[in-house]
Design brief:
InterPro entries: CDP-alcohol_PTase-I (IPR050324), CDP-OH_P_trans (IPR000462), CDP-OH_PTrfase_TM_dom (IPR043130), CDP_ALCOHOL_P_TRANSF_CS (IPR048254). Belongs to the CDP-alcohol phosphatidyltransferase class-I family. Its main location: membrane. One of its GO terms (biological process) is phospholipid biosynthetic process. Helix 9 runs antiparallel to helix 10. The chain is globular. By secondary structure, the chain is mainly alpha-helical. The longest helix has about 35 residues. About 0% of the residues have low confidence. A hairpin with a 2-residue loop joins strand 1 and strand 2. About 30% of the residues are buried.
């Protein structure tokens, strides 16, 4: 009887604890940061829609507010606009002292769409269109190329999901994640892919499809961009450290050289925005890899000739 009584008491206590732990209903949210975050996700979805139109219509140009675009080029531009929204929502939440777990989870979901699915689908769409125009339908290489392109895009999306999930867990435990990132951030990885496509479409509009420069970049993209896509995906889930650019280079007192670098970047943007985007995002992606390689080289013990001579002397004495 006593044992049955104890079991009943334990069950009642567990039931009471379960009721206490029941998730409470979300009643209040910060509206403005959430709207900007949703704008990020909406821009990512719009980018996917334009990429799908590009598969059907190709590189047909059209005017938007007096500026010439292609479907692929505008899809890449929307990814960059999503990045701006992604930067603004966090700043708005901190300025209004309304950061919350809801905002963080919503931001990650929208990032997964805008910086995971959208750039991967853009690359797949461009490559699908290029294979249809460059590769003979009866070619034996066509099937493996199509499958490899799909695989590279899928790897990128999966790595983005893993990277964002890991960031959510580690960011709750480490406050230092705001000064540096473990692995390349998903917006930066998406920026590399979007910058390549925007630059490619800019050449199409300015030089034409028959120009040598366009055809050179076209073949370069067809044969290298799937590997670049996989590489960026792996960089996102790597343990390579990347700095937070605003905190590292702009906040606080910095050396005078930083001002010259910033002025040079502004001049490059004025000269050619597409080239500036391509160079800046590519340089950022490569900076983490180069620093990691440099640190590994420095950790290797230096070769000391004196030790070798001592060993040879000991061998002779033996």
């Amino acid at each position: 009887m006593r044992k049955d009584f104890e079991e009943t008491v334990i069950e009642e206590v567990e039931l009471e604890n379960h009721k206490k732990k029941k998730l409470r209903r979300l009643k209040y949210i910060s509206v403005l940061p959430a709207l900007v975050t949703l704008l990020n996700g909406g821009l990512g979805f719009a980018s996917i829609c334009l990429s799908s139109r590009g598969v059907l219509e190709g590189e047909t140009s059209f005017a938007l507010h007096g500026i010439q675009f292609t479907n692929f080029g505008l899809a890449g531009v929307l990814i960059f606009l999503a990045m701006i929204a992604d930067m603004l929502d966090g700043h708005l939440a901190r300025l209004s002292h309304s950061t919350s777990s809801f905002g963080g989870q919503l931001d990650s979901l929208c990032d997964c769409l805008s910086f995971g699915a959208a750039p991967a689908f853009l690359i797949w769409a461009v490559m699908q269109h290029k294979i249809d125009t460059l590769v003979n339908p009866g070619s034996l290489a066509r099937g493996p190329m199509v499958r490899f392109i799909w695989l590279s895009a899928a790897v990128y999306v999966i790595c983005t999901i893993v990277r964002l999930a890991r960031f959510n867990v580690e960011n709750e435990e480490e406050s230092s994640s705001h000064s540096s990132f473990t692995g390349i951030p998903s917006p930066a990885a998406a920026g590399v892919l979007a910058a390549v496509i925007v630059f490619f479409q800019d050449i199409y509009l300015s030089h034409g499809p028959q120009s040598f420069l366009y055809q050179f970049v076209e073949y370069f993209i067809v044969y290298t961009i799937p590997f670049i896509t996989i590489g960026l995906g792996l960089l996102m889930i790597s343990r390579i450290e990347y700095p937070h650019l605003i905190n590292h280079y702009l906040r606080g007192r910095k050396p005078f050289e930083y001002l010259l670098i910033a002025a040079g970047c502004i001049g490059l943007i004025i000269w050619s925005l597409s080239i500036a985007l391509l160079l800046s995002f590519s340089a950022f992606a490569l900076s983490g890899v180069s620093k990691a390689v440099g640190r590994k080289i420095k950790r290797k013990p230096a070769h000391c000739p004196a030790q070798d001579s001592d060993k040879q002397t000991e061998n002779l004495q033996d």
